[in-house]
Specification:
globular; Glutaredoxin; 26% helix; five-stranded mixed sheet; SH3 type barrels; 2 domains; alpha/beta; binds zinc ion
Amino acid sequence: MIITCPKCGVKNRVPTSKMDNRPVCGKCRAPLSAGTSSGAPIDITDNSFENEVLAFNGPVLVDCWAPWCGPCRMLSPVIEQIAKDYTGRLKVVKLNTDDNPKTAMKFNIQGIPTMLFFNRGEQVDRVTGALPKQEIEKRITKIV
Ligand SMILES: [Zn+2]
């Protein structure tokens, strides 16, 4: 499958079998995030947020959640299905707001689940609540 390098924009051909061992860009050696194409959401933190979301040269859905939050648990399989459906087109990441308060504060997250939508490092949309899959997809369609 083809993965665009988040740093230099070069397209890399990566065998699907190699997706699990964190491939790097052939030109600049930047890590090609497995989350872009492996079809599963990846967990990010305050520390990796900038690299995984802001520096990513494409659309990203950030699911902000916490372990104690019931609606977040309801949303979780929907987010996983979206990651699968949009493999290679949308990066899907999860941020535990209990463990990563810095990012939650920066984006003024008052309630969870909150989904933040980014494109090329810019926040373009956000929504709070466990929405049905088709409602989330309406928003995704605008950025992919
Ligand atoms: Zn590169």
